[in-house]
């Protein structure tokens, strides 16, 4: 089956999706299909879209300057309860759904963006999804308010894929539901990516694949106040290894996938020993306590890229957060009320790259950059992980980069998120303040690869500060119509200063 998946053309997936959506439209008039259309009028300064208007938006990004956007959505979710068992209210054993979201931008230029296009089926607790959908990976308090997971933050569009998952925690029917699990396993098509050929020192665009798996465990029964969470996620971009290593690479696609799946290093005569592909992930921990009025959650993501975490050499780096949720939000009648508050510390400055760091064979982590995959941990020219790690094209001119795709991956940031309401207006705001130190390659210490130190003989990336702010508010009117606005600005020395304002109106059916 693995071999069949590797050889599937992604165009076949979208043909399947189109057929499924057509079938649904014709035969599913009685199903709860939801439609939504939205219009956005926007203006930005300095030909820049502010950071929080373009980050963690799953690729749904407007144009710079004065522009107009039109968004269309159609969804059918799984039926939550069985209509034939009103006493026990069991979930349907078999169910199906689909989703579509498209965006058209008109301004100084124009473009069309496919944000989502997928079909899905449910068999008991298992979900099967085919196509492109919103995808985040990692343990945090709230994906909307968060600065973003290290592995997959929802910054870029979803990678087209076939996925098998248990998306919600499922109580194992032993120990009276003490343990619950969720996880996923997917194969995706990453498209053409620039790969460096180490044999003849050239770069070629080659088709690549995407692999992801995860497993998370919750300890605590459903009615317990205290719960403990732990788990891991593993992502790999891989494919066309012969273009990297030349004829010395002897594995077939199926054999290569075995090394991708296990994270095992491969090497031999003429092939340096290393893990295959660009492998990234996190080991996550979390706790939750339900008070009478609020729910408190704490979480920690520990990062791995090239191997330092196995020696705990980069254990200082991580995403640490706390969220407090108001359990009485929907019943309160206050003029001003809060729903959820989130605070995070995003720290990636260590990377096991200092002269006094614990030595590892792989050297400093250099998060998101990769020697062979020239665009690093990105998809469709957007970073896949936390957007606080900065691409070269997003930074102000003048910072030393040494031609890396991500020129700033040593970051110390405080991030705040708040969701609430003022009378009939929903309110969501985010503010991030960061110190940015470039990479170890552009630091005074230079890069480290095992015992080899590559000094920085050029300019040093000077520490810079950055502030980014976002505020969004919406108000429901009659007949499924909502109106609102979003505003954002950037001020600092890392990104170009900018201000943006969006006026929104949408209608749901």
Mind explaining what this structure looks like?
The protein is mainly beta. The chain has a domain of 153 residues. It has an 18-stranded antiparallel beta barrel. Strand 4 and strand 5 form a beta hairpin. The longest helix has 18 residues. It is globular and about 70 Å long. The two termini are 40 Å apart. The N terminus is likely disordered.
What would the principal axes of the Cα set say about the shape? globular
* Arithmetic mean of pLDDT: 89
- Are there runs of 5+ residues with pLDDT below 50, and where? 1-5, 13-29, 82-89
**Beta-strand share of residues:** over 45%
Helix content: under 10%
What is the radius of gyration?
A: 23 Å
Features:
mainly beta; globular; two-stranded antiparallel sheet; 5 helices; 18-stranded antiparallel β-barrel; 509 residues
Topology:
Layout: H1 2-7, H2 10-27, E1 33-44, H3 51-54, E2 67-76, E3 94-106, E4 110-123, E5 126-132, E6 161-171, E7 179-197, E8 202-219, E9 226-238, H4 241-245, H5 253-262, E10 265-268, E11 271-275, E12 278-290, E13 294-304, E14 318-326, E15 336-347, E16 378-379, E17 382-383, E18 390-391, E19 406-408, E20 411-422, E21 425-436, E22 447-449, E23 452-454, E24 464-476, E25 481-492, E26 498-508
Antiparallel strand pairs: 1-2, 1-26, 2-3, 3-4, 4-5, 5-6, 6-7, 7-8, 8-9, 9-12, 10-11, 12-13, 13-14, 14-15, 15-20, 16-17, 18-19, 20-21, 21-24, 22-23, 24-25, 25-26
């Amino acid at each position: 089956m693995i071999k069949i998946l590797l050889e599937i053309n992604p165009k076949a997936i979208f043909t399947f999706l189109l057929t499924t959506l057509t079938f649904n439209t014709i035969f599913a008039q009685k199903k709860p299909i939801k439609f939504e259309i939205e219009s956005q009028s926007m203006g930005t300064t300095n030909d820049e879209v502010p950071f929080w208007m373009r980050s963690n938006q799953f690729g749904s990004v407007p144009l710079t300057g004065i522009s107009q956007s039109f968004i269309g959505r159609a969804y059918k979710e799984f039926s939550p309860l069985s209509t034939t068992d009103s006493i026990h209210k069991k979930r349907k054993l078999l169910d199906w759904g689909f989703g579509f979201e498209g965006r058209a931008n008109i301004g100084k230029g124009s473009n069309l963006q496919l944000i989502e296009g997928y079909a899905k089926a449910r068999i008991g607790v298992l979900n099967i999804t085919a196509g492109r959908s919103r995808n985040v990976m990692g343990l945090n308090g709230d994906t909307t308010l968060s600065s973003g997971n290290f592995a997959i933050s929802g910054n870029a569009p979803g990678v087209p894929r076939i996925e098998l998952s248990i998306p919600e925690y499922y109580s194992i029917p032993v120990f009276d539901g003490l343990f619950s699990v969720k996880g996923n396993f997917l194969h995706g098509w990453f498209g053409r990516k620039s790969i460096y050929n180490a044999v003849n020192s050239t770069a070629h665009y080659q088709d690549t694949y995407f692999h992801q798996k995860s497993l998370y465990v919750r300890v605590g029964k459903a009615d317990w106040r205290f719960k403990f969470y732990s788990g891991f996620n593993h992502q790999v971009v891989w494919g066309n290894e012969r273009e990297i290593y030349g004829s010395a690479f002897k594995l077939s696609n199926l054999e290569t996938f075995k090394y991708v799946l296990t994270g095992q290093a491969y090497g031999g005569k003429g092939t340096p020993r290393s893990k295959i592909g660009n492998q990234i992930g996190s080991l996550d921990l979390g706790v939750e306590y339900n008070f009478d009025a609020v729910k408190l959650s704490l979480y920690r993501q520990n990062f791995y890229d090239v191997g330092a975490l196995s020696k705990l050499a980069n254990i200082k780096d991580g995403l640490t957060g706390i969220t407090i949720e108001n359990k009485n939000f929907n019943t309160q009648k206050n003029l001003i009320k809060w729903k959820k508050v989130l605070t995070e510390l995003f720290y990636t400055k260590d990377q096991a790259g200092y002269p006094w760091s614990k030595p590892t064979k792989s050297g400093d982590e250099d998060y998101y950059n990769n020697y062979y995959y020239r665009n690093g941990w990105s998809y469709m020219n957007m970073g896949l992980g936390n957007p606080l790690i900065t691409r070269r094209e997003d930074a102000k001119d003048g910072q030393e980069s040494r031609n890396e795709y991500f020129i700033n991956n040593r970051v110390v940031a405080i991030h705040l998120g708040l969701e609430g309401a003022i009378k009939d207006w929903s309110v969501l705001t985010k503010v991030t303040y960061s110190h940015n130190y470039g990479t170890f390659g552009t630091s005074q210490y230079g890069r480290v690869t095992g015992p080899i130190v590559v000094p920085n003989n050029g300019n040093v990336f000077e520490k810079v500060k950055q502030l980014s702010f976002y505020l969004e508010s919406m108000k429901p009117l009659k007949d499924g119509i909502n109106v609102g606005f979003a505003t954002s600005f950037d001020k600092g020395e890392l990104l170009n200063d900018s201000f943006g304002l969006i006026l929104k109106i949408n209608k749901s059916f």
